[in-house]
Amino acid sequence: MLRKTPLAAAIMTVVAAPAAAPLYAHAQAAPVSKTDRTARTDQTATPAENATLPAVHVSGQADTATDFQPEKSSVGAKVPTALRDIPQAAVVVPKAVLDSQAATSFSDALRNVPGVTIGAAEGGQIGNNINLRGFSARTDIYLDGFRDRGQYYRDTFDLESIDVLYGPSSLYFGRGSTGGVINQVSKQAELKAHASVSAMVGTSDRYRTSFDINQPLSSTSAVRLNAFGQDLGSTRDVMKNKDYGFAPTVRFGIGTPTEVTLSALIQHNRDQPDYGIPPVNGAPVPVSKNQFYGFEGDRTIQDVQTFSARIQHRFNDNLTLRNQTQFSHYSTEATATNAAAVLTGPLGTSTALANGNYTSLPLSSLYVKLQGKDRNINDHSVYNTTDIDYKFNTGPLKHEVIAGIDLSHETYSNQSFTATAAGLPSNTLAIVPLLNPQYTTRPSSTKVVATNLAESSANGIGIYANDTVSIGQYWKVVGGLRWDRYEASIKNTINLPSYATQTNYFTSVRGGIIFQPTDWHSYYVSYGTSFNPSLEALTLTNNQQNTPPESNRSYEIGTKWDLLGGGLSVTQSLFNIDKTNARTLQADGSYTLDGDVRVRGYQLGLAGHITNKWQVFGGYTYMDGKVVKALDNTNGKTLANTPRNMITLWITYDVTPQWTFGGGPVYTSARYAASNDLVQVPAYTRWDAMAAYHQKHYDIQFNVQNLTNKHYYDALIPSDGGRAVPGYGRTFLATLNYRFY
C-alpha cells in the first residue's frame, strides 16, 4: 500500500478529516485555546526574531516551561517558522519534555523523535552518530543554524529545544541532509531576570548539577550563563563519564531595530568509549547486558569551543537583514578498545568466524580479539551566513522571500595508532574468553605506534533563495533554489589515496503546496533534493575520490491539525526518499554511482494538551528501507539500522497543582546491524516513568528509566560483522530544581 503514496495519502486524508471534525467542534469548550496562546505569545515576544523559540502560554497552565506544544520551528526556514507553514514533517522536542524525562544527553533527547536510530563509535567517528529515516545524519547536526560537525557527546544543559526536519533539505543546509537535519536551539539572554540551580543523584553513582542565570544589563540588553557538571556511573560494567560545560550569551539591542548576540559553548568530556558486543549466530552474543569488552583505562577526552556572533537589523516590519558567524574547534583524544573478530581458540592464529559468526561450538569455547582504536582528532570550522527576509506583495499575491549566501571553511585531521601487546598480531591487545572476560588495564607490554595521519580541508559557498507565496486565504506555494560549490581535499601519510581533491557543483531545489482551509488544519505536498559529496565528512575511502556527489530526492504528502481547540497538534505524513545514484563497490575495488537506496514510510506525531492537566508528546513511524540496487552482497537487502516500526510516547498528568505523574514507552522493532542482513538485533520496548512535586520556588522530581530493566540494544555498529551496544538497565534518578526568583 505504501508504494501507492499519493493514493494512500488521499485515502488517509478523506477518512481522517471527518473523524477529526467532531473533535474540533467538541473542543470549543475545552480549557486549552490556541487563540489565547497566540495572543499571549504576541504580548511577550520582542519584535526582533532570534534562534530561540517564542514563549508558549497555555490557558490554565501556571508555568509556560511545562508546555509540550511549540508552535514554531527553527529548521523550516532560516527564521523561526510556524509548523503549519512548513511543507515537510518536522518535530520540535521542547525543553519541557526533556526536563520531565530527566533527559540530559543528546541521544536520550532524540528518543522522542520517531525515525531516529543511534549508531555507536565507528572507525574514525566518535560521539553522537545519528541515523534519520535510515540515512546517516552525523554531519547533519546543527547548533543555532550552523553545522555542528564535531565528534563529541552533546548535552542538553543549554538547549531550549531540539528541532528535527525530515527529508532532503540542501536548499537551506547545503551538502548532506539525506534523511533530514537536527538543529539544537540554545537558550538566549532575555530581559526578565531569573536564576535556577538543579542537582541530580541516581543509582549506579550518577551525580549531576547545573545552573541557569539570566540578568538584564539595561532595558535593551541582557546576559545569560548556563553550566553543568556531572560524574556518571552506569549499569554497564566499567563505563563512567565525567563532563562539564559552560554556555554564556549576551544580547544587545533587544526590541530595537538592531540586535547583536554573542554566545559560546565550552565543553569538556572524559568518557568511557563503548564499542558494544560482538555477534554470534546472527545476533548479539547472549551475555549479560552489563558485559563490557575493553580495558579499565579506556577513555575518550573531548574538548569543544564554539563562538558565535549574530547581528540583525530590522529596517521595517517587512525587511530584515542578518549576518551570523561561528568559529568552532573540536579535539578528541581516544584510547579505546573494541571487540573485533570472534575466534575459535585463544591464539592469534585461531580461526576467525565470519558472515554473522554462525557456529555450532558452545559459547564457552569461543574467544574475542580486543583491538585498539586509538586516535587523535582535530576539527576546525568557520561559517558565515548573510541572509535577507523580505515581505512584499505583487497584486493579490503575498510573498516572503528568504535569500542569502553561506560561506564555510573546514579542516580535519585524524592521527591513528596501532596498539599491540607483546606476542600478539599487529593491533591486537588481548584475546579474551567470549564469556566473562576479566577486567584489567592494558597489558604493560603494549606498544603504541603512530600510523596514518589523514589531513583534509574544505571550502564551500552556497547561494540560495526561497519564496513562500500566499495565494488568497487558503493556499501557499513554497519554492526555492540553491547553488553550491564544495571544494575539498585530503592527504594521507600511509593510507590511499595519498592525495585527492574534488570540486563539486550542485543545484538543489525545494517545492511545496500548502492548503489551509481553516486555522486548525493544513495539508501539503512537497518535493526536495540534496547531495552527498565523497568528501562530505572530510574522510574518504580509497577509489571514491573520482565519484561525483550522490543525489537524493524526497516526495512527501501530509496533514497538520490543531485539535481540541488548538491544544493538541496531530501531524501525519507519507514519504519516499530515493538515493538514486548511491556509491556501490565493484569487483575491481573501484566505486561507481550505480546503486539505488530507498526508504518509504508513514509518520504520525502528537504534541500538546488533551486537557489542561493531561499532556502528551510522541509519534510513530513506519520505514521500509531497502537497498534496491547494488553490485555487492547488499543488493536487495534491508537498509542497516532501519527498523520497520518505531513508537515513542510520553504522557504527564497533573493530579493536583502540586503533583504530576507521567511515563511512557519507546518501542523499536527488529533491525539489522549492517545492510548485508547477517546480524539482526531483536525488537524491544522500554518503559520510563516520573513523579514530580511542585512548589513556587522548587520542584522535586523522581524518574525511573527502563522501569522493567529490559535487556535491549541501543546503538548498532556495522563493522566486525555487526556489533551492538546494550542499553542501560533500570536507573533511579532524583532531581531538585530550585528557582531563586
TrEMBL record:
<keyword id="KW-0812">Transmembrane</keyword>
<dbReference type="Pfam" id="PF00593">
    <property type="entry name" value="TonB_dep_Rec_b-barrel"/>
</dbReference>
<feature type="domain" description="TonB-dependent receptor-like beta-barrel">
    <location>
        <begin position="266"/>
        <end position="707"/>
    </location>
</feature>
<keyword id="KW-0998">Cell outer membrane</keyword>
<keyword id="KW-0798">TonB box</keyword>
<dbReference type="GO" id="GO:0015344">
    <property type="term" value="F:siderophore uptake transmembrane transporter activity"/>
</dbReference>
<protein>
    <submittedName>
        <fullName>TonB-dependent receptor</fullName>
    </submittedName>
</protein>
<dbReference type="InterPro" id="IPR039426">
    <property type="entry name" value="TonB-dep_rcpt-like"/>
</dbReference>
<keyword id="KW-0406">Ion transport</keyword>
<dbReference type="InterPro" id="IPR037066">
    <property type="entry name" value="Plug_dom_sf"/>
</dbReference>
<feature type="signal peptide">
    <location>
        <begin position="1"/>
        <end position="27"/>
    </location>
</feature>
<keyword id="KW-1134">Transmembrane beta strand</keyword>
<keyword id="KW-0732">Signal</keyword>
<dbReference type="GO" id="GO:0015891">
    <property type="term" value="P:siderophore transport"/>
</dbReference>
<comment type="similarity">
    <text>Belongs to the TonB-dependent receptor family.</text>
</comment>
<keyword id="KW-0472">Membrane</keyword>
<feature type="region of interest" description="Disordered">
    <location>
        <begin position="29"/>
        <end position="73"/>
    </location>
</feature>
<dbReference type="Pfam" id="PF07715">
    <property type="entry name" value="Plug"/>
</dbReference>
<dbReference type="InterPro" id="IPR010105">
    <property type="entry name" value="TonB_sidphr_rcpt"/>
</dbReference>
<dbReference type="GO" id="GO:0009279">
    <property type="term" value="C:cell outer membrane"/>
</dbReference>
<dbReference type="GO" id="GO:0038023">
    <property type="term" value="F:signaling receptor activity"/>
</dbReference>
<feature type="domain" description="TonB-dependent receptor plug">
    <location>
        <begin position="83"/>
        <end position="181"/>
    </location>
</feature>
<keyword id="KW-0675">Receptor</keyword>
<keyword id="KW-0813">Transport</keyword>
<dbReference type="InterPro" id="IPR000531">
    <property type="entry name" value="Beta-barrel_TonB"/>
</dbReference>
<dbReference type="InterPro" id="IPR036942">
    <property type="entry name" value="Beta-barrel_TonB_sf"/>
</dbReference>
<dbReference type="InterPro" id="IPR012910">
    <property type="entry name" value="Plug_dom"/>
</dbReference>
